[in-house]
Amino acid sequence: MIFISHREVDRRIANALKDHLISWGVDERNIGLSSGTTTSPRIGQGITKTLVRALSESKLFFLVYGGQDADWSYCMWELGVASDPTAPGPRLIVVQCAAEIPLVLAAQQIVRIDDSDLRRFVNDFHRQPAFVPDLPAFSPWIAEEVITARATELHRALVGLASGTTSDGSAAHDSAAGQPSTRDRVFLCHSSGDKPRVRALYEQLRRDGFNPWLDEKDLLGGQKWEDEYEMPFDVVPLWSSVFQNPA
What we know:
Blueprint: E1 2-5, H1 11-24, E2 31-33, H2 49-56, E3 60-65, H3 73-82, E4 91-96, H4 103-106, E5 109-112, H5 115-127, H6 144-162, E6 173-174, E7 179-180, E8 185-190, H7 195-207, E9 211-213, H8 215-218, H9 225-235, E10 238-242
Parallel strand pairs: 1-2, 1-3, 3-4, 4-5, 8-9, 8-10
Antiparallel strand pairs: 6-7
Helix pairs in contact: 1-6, 2-3, 5-6
């Protein structure tokens, strides 16, 4: 199990890392995110057993670190649950997207989003036995040119997102606030019976470069869902209502 912990503002970086892991051959069902479907609580619920289980079973834990100017308490809580002192903990990798790392994380394995660090990470992930604890090397016989290509693609994606642009040059954040752009936000309004169709629509909108909002994707553990539901009325320029089954 791989878990990617991140702040809301760094969600696109976390999703890019997840997408690359999947493209390398990692089963999507074995990847959890702070904002992922399998880890987000239902409306009105607190921290779910599913989230705690995903954290406690993680063998590889990524922490996407974007800077000190934010509240990291939720990510630190996730790290604490994953790092059970009574059992062998996961391998912790801090993906450094900021100039500096706080002292509390300095002793951990740091992967900076530069050419050399990402090249080393991609190589070790594929070829090093027990890089994911208790597991053999993921792909020990992978060709050198494939390692190089995957490292280059990952570097381009992460650097673009961390600097505020995507790999194709489009804006990834509102420059004034450093937050995910609200200009391409789409709020998906639906009934529970239409959930499968809405999930597919959500993924399609993401692939098309939009920033959709869906309750089970965007409500994190511990958040007040009433406050989150008020947010779209203020900042979302486009709404999509899905009507299929009687509600």
